[in-house]
């Protein structure tokens, strides 16, 4: 590390109370309410000089930094994230985002006829498209577990068990199951711990899309013991974009032979008479092929990866209700999400999406139904029209109300996904409830048909 410690400013700062105090540490435009943290995340302004610190070092001595210093910085960041998720450091590497991680895993597996990839109805869109690509280009097939929320955790677990059993009766090989920690849309928690155990008992590989996991809910990957796990750090951990941790236990690392794209770390199987392909990068002693492979995946800006220790340090200064650090961050977010759902649902006269056991909302998301009836709004009632209304609302919120909320259509209704965060308060969601009543009235007046979004108060 350079003589100037980039973490010094963070270590020296005092306690930061969740809510209005924490909001002062983020760089939002005046008047902008960031109600959709879950999509792209953001990070405190204290980390901006740290990002620049690493970028400046890279430009000051490009070869020396990229070839010889970056591996050490990556090791330090890997040690930090591995400790945070309770995993051996040799099982954790970095990729730019969860989509890249999912693709890396699915494209490394070698599929045989009869192999089946199982996935759930609420899978993230790019993940489903990746599965479709795999089934178009390899012998693999896919089995989709269909349902509509709200459903119980038992339903999902029973569905996975029965799907595995049914495929085996058909002579198929359920090779892998893909599922979330927390679903993206709607934003609900899945029983991923139980689903992982079911996979283990059924001798099916478990691939967890934890895009909304790290920094959002407590994780112990050693106890969970999935076959593969990937999670964005730039969403809920306050790391700059794009940064995700890819976890592969030692037992499966021989399967992960290539990064995406394939780079210098790949070790080809030599045919008779072939010479090894030289890796032009400095040799990394004492590291596995898996770790070495992900140290350099083409020329990219890895400064976000190096910021993981800083983000974890910053979180330790957050306080709420007599708690601090991770307990304060997660406790505040989950409490605020529940209150946000209640506040907005009351304002709109609708309801929060939840099952009877109350497990869907055990996270920092709240999903609230919009007070719109299709017959009163739509012209034809076709699915495309439902989607157009959702898109019009979302764009209107961004362009005219200085905010954004994810709007989706499912189960015959429009729903919104609210993100709770340490920089938000109940007043933000009181404002959101009143604002959304106005926007819904505009939908009823048919403004979405002309694609118009007239000015409104914010």
From TrEMBL:
GO molecular function: transferase activity
Pfam families: Aminotran_5
Aminotransferase class V domain residues: 73-262
Record bears the keyword Aminoacyl-tRNA synthetase: no
InterPro entries from the UniProt entry: Aminotrans_V_dom (IPR000192), PyrdxlP-dep_Trfase (IPR015424), PyrdxlP-dep_Trfase_major (IPR015421)
Superkingdom of origin: Eukaryota
Family matches, as SUPFAM superfamilies: PLP-dependent transferases
Protein name: Pyridoxal phosphate-dependent transferase
């Amino acid at each position: 590390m350079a003589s100037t410690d980039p973490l010094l400013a963070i270590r020296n700062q005092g306690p930061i109370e969740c809510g209005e105090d924490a909001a002062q540490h983020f760089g939002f435009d005046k008047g902008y309410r960031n109600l959709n943290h879950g999509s792209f995340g953001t990070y405190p302004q204290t980390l901006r000089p740290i990002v620049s610190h690493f970028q400046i070092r890279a430009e000051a001595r490009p070869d020396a930094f990229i070839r010889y210093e970056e591996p050490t910085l990556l090791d330090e960041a890997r040690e930090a994230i591995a400790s945070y998720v309770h995993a051996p450091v040799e099982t954790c590497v970095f990729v730019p985002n969860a989509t890249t991680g999912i693709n890396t895993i699915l494209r490394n597996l070698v599929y045989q006829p009869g192999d089946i990839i199982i996935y759930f109805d609420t899978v993230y869109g790019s993940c489903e498209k990746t599965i479709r690509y795999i089934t178009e280009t390899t012998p693999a097939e896919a089995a989709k577990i269909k349902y509509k929320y709200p459903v119980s955790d038992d339903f999902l677990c029973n569905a996975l068990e029965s799907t595995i059993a049914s495929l085996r009766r058909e002579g198929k090989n359920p090779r892998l199951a893909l599922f979330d920690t927390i679903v993206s849309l709607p934003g609900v928690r899945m029983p991923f711990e139980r689903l992982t155990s079911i996979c283990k008992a059924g001798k099916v590989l478990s691939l967890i899309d934890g895009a909304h996991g790290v920094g959002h809910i407590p994780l112990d990957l050693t106890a969970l013991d999935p076959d593969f796990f990937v999670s964005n750090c730039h969403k809920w951990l306050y790391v700059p974009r794009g940064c995700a941790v890819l976890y592969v236990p030692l037992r499966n690392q021989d399967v992960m032979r290539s990064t995406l794209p394939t780079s210098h770390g790949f070790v080809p199987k030599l045919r008779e008479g072939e010479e090894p392909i030289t890796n032009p990068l400095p040799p990394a002693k004492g590291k596995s092929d898996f770790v070495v492979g992900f140290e350099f995946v083409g020329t990219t800006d890895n400064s976000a990866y190096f910021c993981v220790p800083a983000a974890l340090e910053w979180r330790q200064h957050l306080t709420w209700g007599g708690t601090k650090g991770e307990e304060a961050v997660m406790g505040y977010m989950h409490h605020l999400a529940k209150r946000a759902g209640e506040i907005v649902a009351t304002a709109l006269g609708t309801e929060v999406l939840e099952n009877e056991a109350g497990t869907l909302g055990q996270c920092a998301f709240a999903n609230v139904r919009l007070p719109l009836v299709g017959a009163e709004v739509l012209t034809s009632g076709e699915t495309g029209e439902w989607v157009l209304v959702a898109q019009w609302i979302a764009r209107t919120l961004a362009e005219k109300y200085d905010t954004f909320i994810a709007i989706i259509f499912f189960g015959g209704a429009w729903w919104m996904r609210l993100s709770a965060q340490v920089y938000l308060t109940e007043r933000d969601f009181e404002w959101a409830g009143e604002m959304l009543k106005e926007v819904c009235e505009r939908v009823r007046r048919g403004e979405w048909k002309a694609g118009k979004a007239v000015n409104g108060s914010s």
